[in-house]
Design goal:
The chain has a domain of 192 residues: Aspartate Aminotransferase, domain 2 (3-Layer(aba) Sandwich). It is 34% helix and 17% strand. The chain is built from twelve helices and 15 strands. It is globular. The mean pLDDT is 98. The structure holds pyridoxal-5'-phosphate.
């Protein structure tokens, strides 16, 4: 194997510089541990932006991928294949009654959802085509999704914006209601905002949004790309929401990415049957979407989560971390909030740290992430043991306690 410096030099030469990559080459992973090319070990509390929901190289997932790889890789969606159907059944069991469209990423699943919302808005000669999203939201990097994303930074330099996307303040129901007009086709929101800084809404917000959508014939899209698949201590984060009558708040469309492939490229648009039925042949597609290997892995992820009771485990570990970090004496005066649900947590620092916080944490043997300038994000694999979680939190505390914040 070439020396680390050679790999880094080649990486700079041959890879486009659109990512702020750290000068570390990750070489191996097992469970919640990563090893770099120099053999240094890290506890991974960010799981590849939440993608490795069951950690690295999970034996059940290796087995599912290997068995499927020996049987059938790809035929395209002119045929039925069993892994897609088996996986979709799991979504129906743990989510809500619906039907699936498969693609490869969160952005693509949101694209599909916005297309479907527009298609529905154009039904019977209708003129509904606008999609409302929330400030601080993130929905992906395609041209339409940077237009949906509620943070102008992602649009800078890529103007003009794709028309028909409108943003309002998240959690402010009056602002949302005021933004709705006769041309509004859809509302898209993350149940908990991820990239925006682990932001949660007032408890009655989602229920009111659902009611508004019902009253005005608007398609409600929950972007569960970050929050889905057990991460927040529910199978899907919208299952935390309660309507005013105490009932469930169910979207018309739910989108998934990241965790749903466990580190392989899988995106899902899951839609209620009466909405899904509008996507007739020719309206949308994806050549490799629903690839049997990815689907076999996705199905197995759901089976392992259920078998090992990982939804409850994520909820427990999240509660434990929130109280532990809030009470941690070493962090007094350094942090202003600890929020989130399950194993999707944000620790808000008093102010933005000096550049290099993630590197300083890595030097202490823990992989974390910083978003919204001053929110440390923790999102490990949801099968992390309590012991490793505590060990990781020790390292996070040690890192943050040493930060000089203004
Ligand atoms: N939606 C949400 C809520 C996300 O957090 C992300 C990525 O971070 C996306 C969509 C885009 O997903 P992808 O990078 O797989 O396209």
């Amino acid at each position: 194997m070439p020396h680390t410096q050679e790999i880094l030099d080649d990486g700079k030469k041959y890879l486009i510089g659109n990512y702020g990559r750290l000068p570390i080459v990750m070489a191996r992973g097992e469970g919640v541990r990563l090893w770099d090319s120099d053999g240094k070990e890290y506890l991974d509390l960010f799981a590849g932006f939440g993608g490795c929901i069951l950690g690295h190289c999970h034996p059940d997932l290796i087995q599912a991928a290997t068995e499927q790889a020996q049987q059938l890789w790809h035929v395209g969606n002119t045929f039925y294949t069993t892994p897609q159907i088996e996986f979709a059944k799991r979504l129906s069991t743990h989510g809500f009654e619906g039907q699936a469209f498969f693609c490869h990423s969160g952005a693509e699943s949101n694209e599909a959802a916005c297309k479907l919302a527009r298609l529905r808005g154009h039904q019977n000669g209708g003129k509904k085509w606008k999609i409302i999203s929330l400030h601080k939201s993130f929905h992906g990097r395609t041209l339409a999704m940077i237009s949906a994303t509620g943070n102008p930074t992602y649009r800078a330099g890529f103007e003009p914006q794709v028309p028909g996307f409108v943003q309002v303040e998240g959690g402010d129901f009056a602002a949302l209601e005021a933004a709705v007009d006769d041309e509004t086709a859809g509302i898209i929101m993350e149940p908990i905002q991820g990239e925006g800084g682990i932001n949660v809404y007032p408890p009655d917000y989602a229920g009111k949004v659902r009611q508004l959508c019902d009253a005005r014939g608007i398609t409600l899209i929950f972007d569960e790309v970050w929050t889905g698949c057990g991460r927040t201590g529910k199978w899907f984060a919208h299952q935390h929401f309660k309507a005013s009558d105490g009932g469930a708040v169910v979207p018309d469309i739910m989108t998934l990415g990241k965790a749903v492939g466990g580190g392989l490229p899988v995106g899902v648009m899951w839609a209620r049957p009466e909405v899904a039925k509008l996507l007739v042949p020719g309206t949308h597609g994806c050549t490799l979407g629903g690839n049997p290997i990815c689907m076999a892995v996705a199905r197995t992820i759901f089976d392992v989560i259920q078998r090992d009771r990982l939804v409850e485990h994520a909820a427990d570990l999240g509660r434990h971390a929130i109280s532990r970090l809030r009470e941690e004496k070493k962090l007094k005066g350094k942090i202003t909030d600890v929020r989130g649900a399950g194993l999707m947590l944000g620790v808000e620092l008093k102010s933005a740290p000096k550049a290099g916080l993630v590197e300083r944490a890595l030097a202490k043997g823990v992989a974390i992430n910083l978003t919204a300038k001053q929110v440390v994000r923790l999102a490990p694999a949801i099968n992390i043991s309590r012991e490793d979680w505590d060990k990781g939190l020790d390292r996070v505390v040690e890192t943050l306690a040493a930060e000089e914040l203004n």
